[in-house]
Design brief:
single chain, about 220 residues, alpha/beta, Rossmann fold, five-stranded mixed beta barrel, about 30% helix, about 30% strand, globular
Length: about 220
């Protein structure tokens, strides 16, 4: 029974360095690349896609014994002290998104006064397994909401430094299959950006290069 590491990304661009390395040279379906030691899974964006694709993969590849899942990807900054392109290791993940329905049937997203405090206390922090790397160790917030406004980032910044849209789902599914998860992120989408899309596209190549570097560091730990 082969023992492998499963690399999980939301977007194929997050894995360009891995794909160009030749370590996962065989594409077996629209979402999966396989190599001798590593398998790459591209889930798509969001909690639902991540949970769905990872569950499907682990069931379809049940004969493979994964010793670790490595989640690599982009994460938006919630605080101004994080520099674009900075590599970080995630030590805690908190699923932040929830909402209230107003009387007019519109949605009010958390946080909202004491309700967010109750919500955050009730939702457990998920704990990835740490790699022995000399990287900043940060808390990551995860949710289906695309967080872009300065106001929303300021609201969430009291609970974590970064935000993404897949990590909590990956941790939950992996726990069901007793597979430890490590998470490395590259900081994107700075707090002060006026045009988040333009900023991301301007620096996308450097972000993918940094993720390739992160994978290189992680290889030494497996």
């Amino acid at each position: 029974m082969p023992v492998k590491v499963l690399i999980v990304v939301a977007l194929e661009s997050e894995a360009e360095g891995i794909l160009s390395s030749g370590l996962v040279c065989s594409r077996v379906d629209a979402h999966t690349y396989v190599g001798e030691k590593y398998t790459l899974l591209v889930t798509g964006i969001g909690l639902i896609q991540a949970a769905k694709r990872l569950t499907q993969h682990l069931c379809a590849f049940a004969e493979v014994k994964y010793q670790r899942i490595l989640n690599l990807g982009y994460a938006g900054a919630l605080t101004a002290d994080l520099a674009n392109g900075q590599l970080v290791q995630i030590v805690s993940v908190l699923q932040h998104d929830s909402f209230l329905t107003r009387p007019d049937h519109t949605r009010q997203y958390f946080p909202s006064g004491t309700l967010i405090e109750q919500h955050m206390r009730a939702v457990p922090h998920l704990s990835p397994v740490q790699l022995e790397l000399d990287l900043p160790q940060l808390t990551l917030l995860c949710g289906s909401e695309f967080v872009s406004s300065r106001e929303r980032k300021q609201q969430l910044a009291q609970y974590g430094k970064l935000v993404d849209m897949e990590s909590a789902a990956i941790l939950h599914v992996a726990a069901d299959h007793s597979i430890p998860v490590s998470i490395l992120k590259v900081v994107t989408d700075g707090v002060e950006a006026e045009d988040h899309v333009a900023e991301f596209l301007t620096h996308e190549k450097s972000y993918t290069d940094r993720l390739a570097m992160a994978f290189g560091h992680a290889q030494q730990c497996f």
